[in-house]
Specification:
Layout (H helix, E strand, L loop, with lengths): L2 E7 L6 H8 L9 E7 L6 H9 L5 E5 L5 H11 L4 E5 L3 E3 L3 H11 L3 E12 L24 E3 L8 E5 H7 L6 E2 L2 E2 L3 H11 L3 E14 L1 H4 L2 H22 L6 H23 L4 H20 L3 H7 L2
Parallel strand pairs: 1-2, 1-4, 2-3, 6-11
Antiparallel strand pairs: 4-8, 5-11, 6-8, 7-11, 9-10
Length: 308
Amino acid sequence: MLASIIIPTYNRSDVIIRSLETWAVQTLSTTEFEVIVVDNNSTDNSAQLIQDYIADKPNFRYLLETQKGSTNARHSGARIAQSDILIFCDDDGLFNPECIQEVLKVYKANENVAAVAGKIEIQWDAPAPDWIEHYLFMLGRLNYGNEIIYRNDIYLNGGIFSIRKSTFNELGGFNPDLVGDYLVGDGDTGLVIKLHKAGKLIGWTPKAEMQHLQFVAKQGTERDMSRRFFNTGISNAYGVFRENKFRFNFKVIKYIMLALLFVLKKQVELFIFAKDKRKTRFSLMQRRGELQFFWNLRKKEIRKVVFQ
């Protein structure tokens, strides 16, 4: 087994089969890779759709993970993966037939490579508003150019996040992300940070491609983008808290106070004299997310995950 594809999914009956179809036509033979679909306790008809689709595909597996959160789903998939090359992928992406093959080429070309990122572009279902072009990175767009590169500071996201299982275990996998409906950590970003701090070599290939399916009526709105900035704030605050060993020391208190002052300033600016209200609103939402992370710590179930 050369590679294990791990796909966490939750209530994506509208797109999951389209995504799985792209894994069924890979250039590798079915004996060379496996696809593990981890259902994070979906409440729609995803489970039935997935199991019906993979019934005649021996290298596809369905796994139910009832504990909420994509990190829990990813870790469940990693535990049963039969290959040392893990490729974590989103359930709303379309992947080119050479995707696995091209990721493996990067590992084979340099035995020191610990992780590999692929190219991610956005595929809209309808013309998107012009303003969103500047924020496509928030939707997962990732492009380091047209050549294979090797560096220690390459960013990866969950769209195509490949890593050696040995490295994955060494670094403790992904950081926490969800507890129920609350985002509490920095998930895949946290693992990227751990890769960088450990000085691990990361590869990038433009030949492993994902088209990230996005819907204008939902993802092409300022409301959804505000939500993404809010979650980025939560992620950033978790990172700061983790860096300070989850203690409310001077640095953390200062961070909270500066975030609070920024929120007050931007709130006034938004309603009085902001030249770019959209940009101001997004930056405001990010700082609100930073404060929300610490406010969420009042909940016992969240503290249990954060302080683990």
